[in-house]
Amino acid sequence: MSTEKRCWKFYLGVALFVYSFIPSSCSGLLFLLNVPMKAHLTEITIFIASGQIAFLISITLLGKTIIQAFKAKFYDLFKLKFFKLDSYYISYTRHLSGIILLIISFIPYIIAELLLVLGYPIKYGDNYLVFYILISGDILFIISLFSLGSGFWERLKDLFKWHPGKKTEQSSDCLKN
Fold it and tell me: Of the N and C termini of the chain, which has fewer Cβ atoms inside 10 Å?
């Protein structure tokens, strides 16, 4: 990223990206240290969910270039030179699987909240189950983002941009009376 583009969006995006890994790490550390969580499990769930939301916002703010930089570092780390890093268009199957994973990644949070409302961890003392459910949602979310590719984020960001000269298309069927 060039220095001209490093404005508040870049710094906020980097800060949110760094923060997005803190909730999962801290929560995992609390579970490994066997700290009693029965009274604070709802707060930890919200804390972990805030990390996922921060990750989504940071990737949206940082844009396509940062995703490509992360991919390049990841591929260099594992010596995966045979992948195309600059592919903007992905196949239909990859797009569909990425969208399905993105939608499914929110289901573990609903399941965890239902378990908390029903009192499952308090009755059975299994706080680890809720934690594993939440972490599975984070993993699915990150995998879906990388499978959707950088073109997805450009289309998503374009969805929220205002185009004053561009008129929206309406169906001609509803205009004819």
Answer: C
pTM score:
0.51
* Domain count for the chain: 1
Looking at residue 46, its pLDDT comes to: 82
Distance (Å) of CA 114 to CA 9, 83, 100, 107, 118: 35, 40, 22, 11, 6
102 within 8 A of 141, measured Cβ to Cβ:
yes
How far apart CA 22 and CA 133 sit, in angstroms, is 17
CB 49 within 8 A of CB 81: no
Helices 41-62 and 22-32 cross at an angle (nearest 10°) of 150
Q: Which two tokens stand for residue 96?
A: 């569909």
Whether residue 48 is contained in a domain is answered as yes
Domain limits at 135?
Answer: 3-81+90-158
